[in-house]
Design brief:
There is one protein chain. This protein is mainly α. Helix 7 runs parallel beside helix 10 and helix 17 packs antiparallel against helix 18. The longest helix is centred in the middle third of the chain and has 34 residues. It is globular.
């Protein structure tokens, strides 16, 4: 939702500004993830993994889903490409702002109607998303009350996303890059103002969504914004045409999320809370590694996709991106898998978050991590199709993978309960990545054999690293407190980094060696070369 705007960056500006733009987006992404963890820390401390947190998460998914459906998926795929055409040098800038004004006016009216309807139907919406399954009957009314507080955020979040897309098209990256950090910070502040009320989280979401909208307003030329009602604007039709295939996948995905929340609420009042805590931890490496590489490589792939079909540059660039991705994501997933319990304990076990919740969340996290490498690779493969102006294929594969997810979840829900949803999610990512790989192979042919060789090397190094991390964690004093968790994560993580670094050098994994040399060249230019 709010965090996606910091990630959904369009093609970067001309060469002179690429490094600066990429740095700004990366810094904003890292900051938003750090503050996001602080948000989860505060939530766990104040309310634990309880039915109250589940009620909040069920209510919070509604504005999130509306954002993903209306704006989140449209920014990179349709909005920025169309508006960038109007912002190109030599084009009439007045026409650009007329288009922006038309978009903002239409969105404001549509979103206001959605908010009003949502407020009227809040009890039915809460019931639909699983609140009816809570064993504590009061939680359904609490979910409804929280939903009513957060529904106006739909207006702020979506308008903020549209402004971010407008600024991206003008190659103004700074303010959009920090919207997620502002959003999460506001939630933390508001929650701490009323630490005994679950409603403080809902008010934090509302205030945070408004704050990220206000943050971006200075980036616009406000004197150019005016009321324009022109639903038939040709550019709007272009945006709609580009987004239709994406919308298909988004709709199916949102339906699957709604069903998964219903299934989770059937397994216990605290299940949605446990699921969300683990999901936020998984999103950390996925966002910092997979999203960062995918966003960085998309502009180059898009340019190379315009070359003759026989030109090997597209496949070379994609192969390089995949190898770099795997040598980074495999050790991250392995290390988190081994250290799942101390990581969860360090992040959440304090205040009202109990030891039993830590144990369950650790298992949930491990099951999610089984699919993390496939989800990371899959994200880059999807971007490869986008670069080739093919949005339909990823959408159709997404539909098929959702069907697989629902089938596995329904099959395992009775014997495994909550854990069935994590297993189904990992199976979904494996199948999605497999289908995307097969279809991409048919479209462009096979990639260099070095991709497979590097993946095997990285996998072997990661497994060996995992054994070392496990051994170190086992001999670390097993105190289940802050000091014990910190020691296990710190010593185990350090041992893992050293081990993986040594193995990378021995196995001659060129991609990671190149990254290491580039970092050292900047830190120690006198020894490793001149600073660029």
């Amino acid at each position: 939702m709010a965090e996606s705007s910091a990630l959904a960056a369009p093609s970067p500006p001309p060469v002179a500004g690429i490094t600066r733009a990429a740095t700004i987006i990366f810094v904003g992404n890292v900051l938003s993830r750090m503050v996001g963890l602080a948000r989860e820390y505060v939530k766990a401390d104040l309310f634990g993994a309880t039915g109250l947190v589940s009620a909040f998460e069920v209510a919070n998914i509604v504005p999130t889903m509306i954002y993903d459906l209306l704006v989140g998926g449209i920014i990179s795929s349709a909005l920025v490409p169309v508006m960038s055409d109007h912002a190109a040098p030599g084009r009439d800038r007045g026409e650009f702002w007329r288009l922006g004004s038309t978009l903002f006016s239409l969105a404001a009216v549509s979103l206001a109607i959605i908010v009003v309807v949502g407020e009227l139907l809040a009890p039915q919406i809460a019931w639909l998303f699983g609140a009816r399954n809570f064993q504590d009957p009061s939680l359904q009314q609490i979910t409804t009350d929280l939903l009513r507080v957060m529904l106006p955020a739909v207006l702020f979040l979506n308008m903020s996303g549209l402004i971010a897309g407008t600024l991206f098209s003008l190659q103004r990256f700074t303010l959009p890059a920090f919207t997620a950090a502002v959003y999460n910070t506001t939630i933390v502040i508001v929650a701490l103002l009323r630490p005994d009320q679950i409603g403080s989280l809902a008010w934090g979401v509302l205030a945070g969504s408004a704050a990220q909208l206000l943050l971006q307003l200075p980036g616009l030329e406000l004197r150019q914004i005016r009321w324009v009602w022109n639903p038939g604007h040709p550019a709007l039709r272009r945006i709609g045409k580009l987004y239709v295939p994406i919308a298909l996948g988004v709709i199916v995905s949102q339906v699957a999320i709604g069903i998964s929340y219903n299934l989770a609420t059937q397994t216990g009042d605290e299940s949605v809370a446990l699921m969300r805590y683990a999901t936020n931890l998984v999103q950390l490496p996925l966002g910092l590694v997979a999203t960062a590489i995918s966003v960085a490589i998309l502009p180059t792939l898009a340019q190379q996709a315009l070359l003759p079909s026989a030109d090997p540059q597209f496949k070379t660039t994609l192969a390089h991106g995949l190898t770099v991705l795997m040598v980074l994501i495999l050790p991250a997933a392995t290390g988190m898998f081994v250290l799942a319990r101390p990581i969860v304990g360090l992040a959440f076990e304090h205040g009202d978050f109990t030891s039993a919740a830590t144990q369950t969340t650790s298992t949930v996290l491990r099951l999610y991590l089984l699919g993390l490498p496939f989800a990371a690779v899959d994200q880059l493969l999807i971007f490869a199709f986008y670069a080739r102006k093919n949005t339909l294929t990823p959408a159709l594969v997404g539909v098929a993978s959702v069907v697989i997810y629902l089938a596995v979840a329904q099959l395992l829900i009775r014997p495994l309960g909550l854990y069935s949803l994590m297993i189904a999610d990992s199976v979904k990512h494996v199948m999605h990545a497999a289908m995307m790989t097969l279809l991409l192979h048919r479209a462009i042919g096979g990639l260099s054999s070095r991709v497979g060789i590097t993946a095997l090397k990285a996998l072997g190094a990661s497994v060996t690293m995992g054994l070392v991390v496990w051994a170190v964690a086992e001999v670390t004093p097993a105190s289940e407190n802050l000091a014990g968790w910190l020691a296990a994560v710190g010593l185990g993580g350090t041992a893992g980094l050293v081990t993986y670094g040594l193995l990378v050098k021995q196995l001659d994994i060129l991609e990671l060696n190149a990254i290491r040399d580039r970092v050292l060249a900047r830190l120690l230019p006198g020894r490793f070369g001149r600073r660029q």
